[in-house]
Amino acid sequence: MNHVERFRAVMDFAPVDRLPRVEWATYWNLTIDRWKAEGLPAELAGHFDIAAYFGLDPYWQAWYRAAGPGYPRPEYHGHGHVATMDDYNRLREHLYPPMDWVDNHIGPWLEKQRASEAVVWITLEGFFWFPRTLFGIEPHLYAFYDQPELMHRINADLADWSVSLLRRIAKLGSPAFMTFAEDMSYNHGPMLSEALFDEFCAPYYRQVVPVLEEMGTLPIVDSDGDVTAMLPWLDRVGVKGILPLERQAGVDGARLRQVVPRFRLFGHFDKMVMHRGEAAIRSEFERLLPTMRQGGFVPSVDHQTPPGVSLEQYRTYLRLLWEYTERAAGA
Fold this sequence. Notes:
This protein is an alpha/beta fold and about 325 residues long. It contains 14 helices and 9 strands. Helix 8 (about 150-170) runs parallel beside helix 10 (about 200-215) and helix 13 runs parallel beside helix 14.
């Protein structure tokens, strides 16, 4: 099977020759600095080229941000620039940038996907994530109650822009899957209630997801933390999968399969065992193996590989990834 056939078959819970071998998150720069000191070729730059060096499958991501180059950078992580409708209207000219550059950016990669040389996926900002970048972390949580009209205005504008972007991309081809950047859970569960999700996020998912379905692009949500409680919410709006399934937040893939049996899963390998040696890495793969065998699952590190993992330890992880992606398929 080629890379595209294999991905689509796994996502359809169909038989495969092996599971995909992917590092879905970009490599942490501190980890790469360490590895280069330990023998990783110094000239390697960029996630795609580093993954290729390790022999991982060619998955290429394009992230399209709704804040244009003129939007002011936050002073610190979690800081925002929007507190009122007037603020939003004043800054809106710097949001939802034009799309004239998109064709040349993703077009050649969709050609590679048609030639089965790469699996292409795209990321758009979601309806919890993007308002947070405008309001700031704490004001965003208050805004559900204090600024409901503005919250709806932002998400309506974001949905319209996202649909226009997707329709432009659709003229060039169909990315294999798409992730909504959300991060709307922490280690004890979602950061908003089901009622708030239904009011402020669900209508806009229902506007965007059908366009993805028309394109043949699988809609996935990217959220850290414990996502167990919100899986039925996402299922109701047509989302088909979730990543990265952080083990440290208590996520259990087998439990998720009980909650929504056909939900696609990405990640879930506990990054915190990677420095503990081969026996610990093998034990983690054994934990995942029953779910891997069910299909609909691409095993990968459950976030960026930490800088505490040596190059040799990472090679051990890869060797066992090779073994278990074959075992899971019955190879």
